[in-house]
Amino acid sequence: MATLALPAGPFALGTFSAPDGEPFPGLLVQERVLDLSGALDRSPSDVRAVLERWEETLPLLRALAEDDGRGWRPLEGLRVHAPVEPRQIFQSGANYRQHVIDLEVAHRSPDDPRTVEEARAEIAAVMDRRAAEDLPYVFTGLPSAVTGPYDDVVLPSWAEKPDWELELAAVIGRPAHRVSVDEAIGYVAGYTIANDLTDRATVFRRDMKAIGTDWLRCKNAPGFTPLGPWLVPAESVADPGDLRVTLKLNGDTMQDESTKDMLFGVARLVSYVSRTARLLPGDLVLTGSPAGNGIHWGRLLRAGDVMEGSITGLGAQRTRCVGETS
């Protein structure tokens, strides 16, 4: 396992297990972990259960983080799992200005008479107008795609163009339905890192072009959403709209962009999703991928690749790609 990058703030949440042990919800303070299933009333079995009572539990977590008399154990030697098991995953598409411009240029028709510079300028104008006047574009993902931040990623044999998409993920802390933009940020318990892998070859249906995109096929293979390592409380993230999102492939920087480039920020995304769906504690709202995906570089994922993803203050994940064996 890679050297673990610790989060910002006095503490974070995570899901851990000892060798051959069952996963448990843990409070991370520096390089030590406290098992919350024994330290909190009602013995929460997982981090989602902690989030179910987030408002009343958060002050207790602050106090526990300063209590040296508890049964802390060293982080070293513990396995780090995805920090939370969501019931619902909402994924924002086309939410980074530069990323959308890159994709539109990459996928433009060979018959397009515009120069690359002309196409970029026109698409940029559309993005600016969209941010000011339009609504976010959001679809749903499967919790079964979630895997740990240091687990291997199995590339399915059918995935011809697997790609990376490192993203900021907001974690919901209380039920939210039809909340305003001004209210929305108050429903976010914290933030974590998600790599929303996508097979570019199956994004669009070849057999039914009129239907368009196939998000089930291209994004939801088991392990296609490495998550974590930590859930960092919102109070420790000064501005989710000003974080650096960086992904390295085999040591080379591919994505390195600020969340300032988002067209729709966390509050607008959470509010928009809540207009239709009822958000629940532990749910994830993925905020979209910045520029620098493999389709931009002309270099897609293959077995043996190592992805290292980090976001300011949220730690870092490291995943190795392996080929499907059966």
Automatic annotation (TrEMBL):
Which InterPro entries does the UniProt record give?
Answer: FAH, Fumarylacetoacetase-like_C, Fumarylacetoacetase_C_sf
User: Is Metal-binding among this UniProt entry's keywords?
Assistant: yes
Listed GO molecular functions? hydrolase activity; metal ion binding
Domain Fumarylacetoacetase-like C-terminal, chain residue ranges per copy? 89-320
Tell me the GO BP annotations in alphabetical order: small molecule metabolic process
Top-level taxon: Bacteria
Keywords from the named record: Hydrolase, Metal-binding
Spans traversing the lipid bilayer: none
Write down the PANTHER family for this protein, in alphabetical order. Answer: FUMARYLACETOACETATE HYDROLASE DOMAIN-CONTAINING PROTEIN 2A, FUMARYLACETOACETATE HYDROLASE DOMAIN-CONTAINING PROTEIN 2A-RELATED
Family in the record? Belongs to the FAH family.
What name appears for this protein in its UniProt entry? Fumarylacetoacetate hydrolase family protein
